[in-house]
Amino acid sequence: MLTAFRENLVFFLSPVEVAKNAPPPGRDFRLGGLVEQGSVHKETIDGHPAAAFTVTDGGATVKVTYIGILPDLFREGQGVVAFGALHPDGTFRASEVLAKHDETYMPKEVEEVLKKSGHWNPNAGPPPPAATWNTLVPKQSGG
Hints:
4 helices; 7 strands; five-stranded mixed beta barrel; single chain; globular; disordered C terminus
């Protein structure tokens, strides 16, 4: 029973966590972070809408591909959660994409990276705009 539970458990990971300890290819999980500015590329594959974009948490990035219609609220610089799996080439292939509707949304992992790097002190005011997070913290290779 524990084995069945473990196999059906879906993890939530940030790009930094994926870069540090990526799940094995084919293992489903939720990837959360921000859609990196300038990273969205849309196309049509076999008559279906498709997109490629990068998810970041300010410390690492993960390339994502998705075949389907993106949510209306999907935007560069906004929060996103994608469900899918890594493939052997390191690309995250999403089967579902959810966009966060609150422009003040900040993933906890991003908040921690910004605090640790000295780019944000919560006592000094609100965090920097989401669009600048990927320029504030050095990136790690994430796929």
